[in-house]
Design brief:
Layout (H helix, E strand, L loop, with lengths): L2 H21 L6 H4 L5 H17 L4 E7 L3 H7 L5 E6 L9 E3 L7 E10 L9 H6 L1 E11 L10 H6 L4 E6 L13 E6 L2 E7 L7 H13 L10 E3 L7 E2 L5 E6 L3 E8 L1
Parallel strand pairs: 1-9, 3-12
Antiparallel strand pairs: 1-2, 4-5, 4-9, 4-10, 5-6, 7-8, 7-11, 11-12
Amino acid sequence: MSTMEIKRDMASLAAVVDEAARTATAIPQLTERVPDLTVEDGYAIQALSLARRLGRGERRIGVKMGLTSRAKMAQVGVDEVIWGRLTDAMRLEEGGAMSRANYVHPRIEPEIVFLMKKPLSGEVSPLEALAAVEAIAPAMEVIDSRYQNFKFALPDVVADNSSSSGFVLGNWHKPDTAIDNLGIILEADGRAVQVGSTAAILGHPLRSLVAAARLVSRWGERLNPGDIVLAGGATAAHALAPGMHVRAVYQNLGAVSLNVTE
C-alpha cells in the first residue's frame, strides 16, 4: 500500500469513529477491519478525527489521560499511559445536565484536573510541571467507548480519542494544594458506588501531568496556557443511566456533580 493509500485509509477510519461519536452510534472495532492496526496508527486516526471536529467549529482546550492506574496498565499489558484531546463541546455544566442519548456506553469517573498557565512539553520533572500550573480542581470525566458491546483493543481505544466524551469541573484551588492522597467518594443517587484516592492516579496526579507533557510532544504538540489536563480516573468508572444524579466528593477540595437526563 502506498503512502497516499495509507493516509486515505486512516482518513476513512477517522471518519468512522468521528461519525460514531457525533451520532452516538456503536460501531465494530477498527481492529476487526484492520487486524494489524497499531497504537501509533490509533493516534494518527485520533488526530484526523479531531481535525474533523475542529472543522465543525469545535475548539481544542486540553487533553485527558487514560490508563493511569497501575493495575489497569498491567491488566491491558501496557507500560505507558494513553491520552486524548478535549474540545469545548465536551464541557458539561457543574450541577447541570447531560443527555444520555448523546452517548453510547457512558460511564463517569472522578479525576483531578490541572489548569495550565505556562507552555509545557517534552521531558519535564514534577517540579517543572507544577511550575506551569495555574490551578487544580476536582473533576469528573464522562468516558464513552463507541465500540459495540464495550469491547476493544488498545489501538481501537486510542483511535476513539481514548474514550474522551465529556467532563465537568469543580472549583479551582491553588496549584500547591496537596493532592497526593486525597480521599474520594463517588455517589450515584446519594449512594456511594466507588471509594478511592487521588494516589490511584500513578501514585500522584502530578505524574500524569509529566506524562502528558511527554506524550503530546511526540505529536508536535504542547500543553498551552489556558489548557486543562484531566489526570485520569481515581476510581473505577460507574455506568450512567437516565434520571441518575452523580456526585464526587473530595477530601479538602469540595464536590462536583452532574444530572443524567434521557
